[in-house]
Each structure stands twice: as structure tokens, then as C-alpha cells.
User: Fold this.
Amino acid sequence: MSLQIKSLVKSEVTVQLYALAHSPSIKVGKAGKAYCDLTLCDQSGEIDAKIFSPTDDQITLIEMCKTKPTIVWVEGQTNEYNQQMQIIVRKIRFVENDEGVSLSNFIKWAPQPADEYLGVYKNALSKIQHPSLNLITRTLLNAHASELKHVPAAQKMHHNVAGGLIWHTSNMLQLCDTLLALYPNDLNPDLLRAACILHDLAKCQEFIIAEGTGKVSEYSLVGKLKGHIVMISEEVRETARMNGMDPSDEMIILLQHTILGHHGKREFGSPELPKTPEAIALAYIDLLDSRMGAVHRLLEATPKGTWSGRDYALETDLYHHPFVPGYPLDEENDRKV
Assistant:
């Protein structure tokens, strides 16, 4: 197999590799000239790539990457921009069938089988005793069940792998259990668990997933205009109405509020600030696991004893020190990156 993305260095060397190309866009630089921006990934990691002064054939290839999984062969030069490594692409082409390259070599999945994560969902659902909350949660979970196994939690920032959404939410449900044990008199367990299960479900409609990749190629129209938070809140209300419940019932409004506030701040996409114990708890649980998901992503991509580039989610670079337990010592960990 070709060079892996994790093994690339920032020393402006020429590299050749196979990769899965996704999240492409055509942009215009400061000089008014068009360039292509895309992400290249394999099972070891991902890297931003740029094609300056693209040819018509290259633009056609980029456009195809938006809607279907596209394995490409790339030749280019690595460098560093804004503390992040990137590839300046010189040549890029589709991979032919006789090259022996399989899509499965480039798809990164969540670390555990999907059924294990969904088992955490089912266990949490079985603990929701409030009849309305249980019915609403069960109905919406069943409605999205067929899509959940391959949807990522985000395009780039955290748990951005196939099955990343159920990985992230199952982690959050386990954090809910811990917080409920610590604060049994301060949090309604039914409300917190129901909101946790539901809070990101509408990402199944917000994201357009490149078939078979678990990668977000772009956001859907409704995803751009409403966003997953508003979308799932509307689904809660409609599900309540369709099942003969009064949408103005206080518990249903509290469920909607807990979901609406889970990004914590309006500037982070929440239509309302969290104003109840459960809403505050869910916002911090979501923040904690999303940030740890970003840490996990960087640790996988960064050899021990070295620093990652600056990460947008963490607002810092990360040192992968030698005492982090879960990663074998890289044989080339002393190289300059």
C-alpha cells in the first residue's frame, strides 16, 4: 500500500499517495484566482489539500467528490500553513480498477461495533419511565435507526468517522449516568436521558454523506437553513402531536429546551441558552465528549513525543506525551514534524 497520511512530514517533500477525497470546494484567493480546497484521508488520518490554478479536468474530478466516494492518486508537496500541515497538489487523478485499491482501505470507523453503541441507547431508553418522554424518544430513534450506523458526529471537529454519531452519543449517555449518580436530587433522569438520545439525531438529515464513506460531503439545504438543533426540536413537537399529546405540556417543552440549549451558547449554534439543570448538564456533557473526541483524533494522528498542529476545536496544539497509555510507541517518534 502507498504512503499513509499519518507518516507525512512538514519538510516540503514531494509525496505520492492514494487517498479518499472528500469535502471539496472551489474558492477564490486574494489575487482573484480560483483554487480547489479538499480533504484527503485514509485510515491513519486526514490532511487538507489545495490545487492552485486547477485544470478543467481537475475541477470535474473535484465536483464528483461532492456526491460519491472518490479514491484518488495524488502527487504534491507538503508544507505548513497556519500551523497545519497541508499538501499542495501538482497531479491528481482517479484510481483505476486494476490498481488493487479498495474503498475499505480508506474508511475509518468508530472503535467499537455499531450494535455495542446502540445497546447503550437501548439501555438508556429502558430507564426512561415518563410515558411521554419514552414514547417520543422511542418513536424518533426508530425513525432514524437505519441511518445511524454510518453517520459521523461532525464534518471535521470530533468523532468524524463512520459511526461517529452513535459513538459520541453513547459516550454522553454514560457520562449522564455518572452525573445522575453524583447529583441525584438535582437532575431529572428521564429528561436528561431523553434529550441526550435525541439531541443530535437530526444530523442524519443535516449532513449529506458520501455513499459508503461516513464522510460529510456537504450540508443539506434544510441543514444549512435550519440546523440539526431546530430540526429535532420540531420533530419532538410533531411526534408529540401525532401521538395525541399536548405539545404545550411542560415536560415536552422542557425536552425541547434541553435540546435547544445543548451547544451552550448562541454563538455556538444554540437558539437559546441552557436555563434548566438538565439543559446545563447536557451542554457540558456534549462539550466534554466533543473535546475529548478531538483529543482522540489528534492522538491517533500524532506520533508520541511530538506536537500536533493547532486544533480549531481545542484552540491549541496538543502534546502527545510518552505516558499516554493507549498508543504504541512510534518507531519514528523522534523525527522532526
In short: The chain has two domains: 5-105, 114-294. Confidence is low (pLDDT under 50) at residues 331-337.
